[in-house]
Amino acid sequence: MTSTVADVMLQRLRDWGVDHVFGYAGDGINGLLSAWERGGDEPRFVQARHEEMSAFEAVGYAKFTGRVGVCTATSGPGAIHLLNGLYDAKLDHVPVVAIVGQTARSAMGGSYQQEVDLHTLFKDVASDYCETVMVPEQLPNVLDRAIRIAASRRTVTALVVPADVQELEYVGPSHGFKMVPSSLDLTWAAPVPGEGDLRRAADLLNAGEKVAVLVGQGARGACEEVTTVADLLGAGVAKALLGKDVLSDELPWVTGSIGLLGTRPSYELMTGCDTLLVVGSNFPYSQFLPEYGAARAVQIDVDPTMVGLRYPFEVNLVGDAAETLRRLIPLLERKDDRFWREDIESKVDRWWQVMERRAHTSADPINPELVFHELSPRLPEDAIVAADSGSVANWYARHLRFRDDMRGSLSGTLATMGPGVPYVIGAKFGRLGRPCIALVGDGAMQMNGINELITIAKYWHDWDDPRLIVAVLHNNDLNQVTWELRAMGGSPQFLPSQELPDFPYAAYARSLGLAGVLAAKPDEVAPAWEEALAADRPCVVEFLTDPAVPPIPPHATWDQLEKALESIVRGDSDRVDVIKEGVKSKVQEFLPGRGGDS
Q: What are the residues facing 224 on neighbouring strands?
């Protein structure tokens, strides 16, 4: 029996160890779908409710497994729908391969149905590699390169396969002119800087008295080395949001997240240090780093194109984070004076006390901070947590204390709405035995999360561990944007854009055969988490939260807060008094000298 191009493509994916492909059907990939049937659904085809969700699921799979995620879609609209998820992968440096259909070669250029210039469409998102398979002999080379480039450069690649090519008899490249053979093997080398550069970095770090370290997702495999460096230098360590799971939040010198969604100790760490070491992070907001000229700085990153971008670093070390730090450690001198470290630890301790008080501030009906505060100690030791974009990201960043084996992520750079639920679906297929939790606002849930509950209902019986929780903050408000309007735009709330229709999330989950829990009062929050974590199937736990609890950033100024309050008053909101009291209680904790009734 002869093999088609589609048969060989799927076999090649199997040879690469690809075990799942996230996609949605269409006649532009009929040849591939037929090959899937002949191949016994290997690799497994996971059907999302929308192509964008397929891409997000591939991103979640890749983020939480470290392997290449693969998604597929038909030509035209299917390929277009993949874009948002693919951009999420590209901007967060996640390896994803997109395989998309195209109209038959005989129709190309004829304004045929669903004909889209896919090379132009993917020109930016798959800029490292985007190729169209025009003849069978191009395989397996183009597929191998797509996977190899995505994996090695941690980026998005795309393969366009016209519908008629998928069904052609496969003929491999011959040993001849203008033929390109290929191979499967992929080995890794850990680049390291030279000794001279390491010595320059060590001299700079040794000279500092108040050292701050910032780690990102590129330091995920260097936890032990970062810990050793921080101990030698008496440093505090802040975490970029994509690096939240790099170090345990139970370490007393870990200050937590940095930036708009960050913590006060991280903000003070950066404003008070005289020396900065950045490891594996492309954190974009330089205003949260030390003032220019206030600190000397060293950066370590595996990607030579990403060094020196965010701060005037004196030494840029290009290399694998763990291996570079191992070579740097013998050159570092232990700082005997621990005043800086002790000050950091006292501020971290106070921060967690503040978080507990904030979580228990009264609200109507439930303070969203209480939801996250009650989840944190209940997180399973091997939990995988995904947060969506919106106000939930604030509480995820500040309230959840990750421990050593926990994993967490969100759309860090694109900050798109909607990946929370598909992320954990992808994670569930890649890490079947681990409990997964998606933390989602009602805006993102209505955007696409509701539909992906159908995907969960379709597949959960296949998972070794059925624990998948979707937690929804139900406040009928696009809350993050509402507060941004108040703080930056001086607008109280433009209801036509911000107000969301009501929806029974937990009841809908139950209608699908999933578990559904509703918490409508503060004393129901902890029992709701307990019930969801003990459920024998995926569970939607719905919290009726107060939209008047402000996600105040650590750098908030008194003027910004006054502007937010004034905008609320102008709106003649019936919640003005509640909101003003909420802001006041936060101000007392965040702004030194503004205690009491200031």
A: none
